[in-house]
Amino acid sequence: MAKVAIVGAGFMGTATAWPLCDNGHEVRLVGTHLDGAIIQSCKERRYHPKLKRELPAGVTPYYVEDLAQALDGVEIVVSGVNSFGVHWIGRTLGPHLKPGQTVIAVTKGLEAAENGDLLILPDVLASELPESIRDKVKIVAIGGPCIAGELAARRQTCVLFGSRDGAAAKHLAQVFRTPYYHTWPTTDLVGLEVGVALKNAYVLPVGIANGLLDKAGGPDAAEAYMHNTAAAVFAEGCTEMEFLLRKMGGSSVFAYGLPGAGDCFVTSAGGRSMRLGRLLGKGHTFTEARQIMAGETLEAAMIVSTMGASIPKLTERGFLRPTDLPLMRALVDIVVYDKPVDLPFDSFFPNVP
Amino acid sequence: MAKVAIVGAGFMGTATAWPLCDNGHEVRLVGTHLDGAIIQSCKERRYHPKLKRELPAGVTPYYVEDLAQALDGVEIVVSGVNSFGVHWIGRTLGPHLKPGQTVIAVTKGLEAAENGDLLILPDVLASELPESIRDKVKIVAIGGPCIAGELAARRQTCVLFGSRDGAAAKHLAQVFRTPYYHTWPTTDLVGLEVGVALKNAYVLPVGIANGLLDKAGGPDAAEAYMHNTAAAVFAEGCTEMEFLLRKMGGSSVFAYGLPGAGDCFVTSAGGRSMRLGRLLGKGHTFTEARQIMAGETLEAAMIVSTMGASIPKLTERGFLRPTDLPLMRALVDIVVYDKPVDLPFDSFFPNVP
């Protein structure tokens, strides 16, 4: 049985405690400086107020001040922060990590380098570790269609554990695997990370289709919705994910597997990205929608902004053609340049054989 | 401008009249022997009772008895029958067809040959034509995520026009293309037909996930649904479509494009296949669900039955391995052998790199 520390007591990090505890591992849940109230509730009542659920018996909660104590002697550290916290967690964990330990990240996103290159977050995290330890710890990432609250409810869930270190991916997949949490190891870390990051962007147009329906006054007298439109942009999203996966050296498989189509499907079931898309489809500019959703973390806007920073440079460098990624370019126009919704259907599906 | 006859006055066949009329083509809508009441309504009130919509001005309705007159001088015949009617329409059209005409089919499905081979419906239709004309007409098929009522409402819709005759696919795509009906020609007719047929099977487990949630008493106190489960089977469905597309000589592209992921997405928005899946997930056997949905055409059950007739033979012949298509085999157990739902999650995603 392993000792595991989860750092970041938000939805997804905490939810991994369920399969870990069910497998008999010892779990230490460490809040960040933003999670004080959560940890207090966990300590006093063993109740996680975001997940709205009692913690499994095997979990010990820690305040961020006790991080060193919590990390002492663990084999695995789960990075449960969101994409804003990736640099922080790298810098924070760095001094505590020991050779042979594994860091496993649930964070989704991409960053754009100065030259436009897209960086996956496990690499961003690793870049913040001291050089002396960077190559001596293993980095693994979890990805795939997983709503945290459903994992904590032990609903049937299928995810991937990715690492360039195949043995580490395999070991961690086995550590977390339960009869309800089905895990596959993969060495295609880039493909996994690109797929799960882009899905937050590509679900936006599905929400936009809902908003366009609102704008049209809802279903008409003959009960026509806009499912055709939603399905078309869903398919174009998967198509652009496949294109970008290949361009970045990942496998096409993830466009139609768990990280691409699967993750886009689960995200389209609801949540902030769909609500944002709907506001945009209804006719609000991004600036207006941003105000309406004030205080909410908009992962979709973050990834579109990253792509907006990257695409012009990648195009200028010849890595992308000006005709590549028409749907993503339309999303950049909407989110970054505050333009009205205009989906370029006739530019979609350039790869039809 | 072309003269076009639509034979079969159901949802999808009739809906193609909208883009055709908007493009100024002359459209003749011919009911089958099952469509008498529809044609009567179209003649008397210019109202299509299934689509709940007034016909475009350019449409002339015909009873099946006037088929010869309706087909006289047309360049294009739309086969608007469902998969039960494919043999009938081939035999019925045969004597009337003239060299150079194009038959375009909206029908979705597959048939299993005696040896287990899967046959696409355009080939089944062609096999019913007299040999003297078979190679002198062009066969085209329409596929992709399109709910007929939304097409008739002129909602943004993206579809493929497939034919082994590339020029015919290109011409027909242009004849039907409008600012709301976006059409792409493809020569991968097999890929297109396999994708759009299988989606009716692979949407069943998405419905099953909804039914499993019902069976569990609905969302729990912390509001956990079963979206993770639905997304996992959605992704496995796309993965199995990709596998079968390639095995049958089609392109992988359609697994994550309009016919695969796109069509599966639109079908998961509702309808009979989702309702059937939900009943199965709730715990009803297929026999019970079949009775509850008495009188309804169950495309999902049809395609699963076809696969049930084909898979054992294809496996015996070595075309498939016993481990291929685990989700489809599970669906065959449920639909053909009336077994309880048991989704083999751990056999999914054999292609993870």
Radius of gyration of chain A: 20 Å
According to DSSP, the number of beta strands of chain A is: 12
Biggest interface between chains: A-B, 68 and 68 residues
- Biggest sheet features of chain A: 8 strands, mixed
CATH topology of the largest domain in chain A: Rossmann fold
Give the end-to-end Cα distance of chain A, rounded to a whole number of Å: 51 Å
Oligomer: homodimer
Report on this model:
The structure is a homodimer of 353-residue chains. Chain A has helices at 11-15, 17-22, 36-45, 67-71, 86-93, 121-127, 131-134, 148-152, 166-176, 189-202, 204-215, 227-247, 253-256, 258-267, 272-282, 286-292, 299-316, 326-335; strands at 3-7, 26-30, 47-48, 53-54, 59-62, 76-79, 102-105, 110-112, 118-120, 138-143, 157-162, 181-186. Helices cover 48% and strands 14% of the residues of chain A. Chain A is globular. The mean pLDDT of chain A is 97. The first copy, chain A, has 353 residues and is of the alpha/beta class. The first copy, chain A, has 18 helices and 12 strands. In chain A, strand 3 (47-48) and strand 4 form a beta hairpin. Chain A has 2 domains: 3-187, 3-Layer(aba) Sandwich (Rossmann fold), CATH 3.40.50; 192-347, N-(1-d-carboxylethyl)-l-norvaline Dehydrogenase, domain 2 (Orthogonal Bundle), CATH 1.10.1040.10. In chain A, helix 10 (189-202) runs parallel beside helix 14, helix 11 runs antiparallel to helix 12 (227-247) and helix 17 (299-316) crosses helix 18 (326-335). Chains A and B meet through helix 8, strand 11, strand 12, helix 12 and helix 13 of A and helix 8, strand 11, strand 12, helix 12 and helix 13 of B.
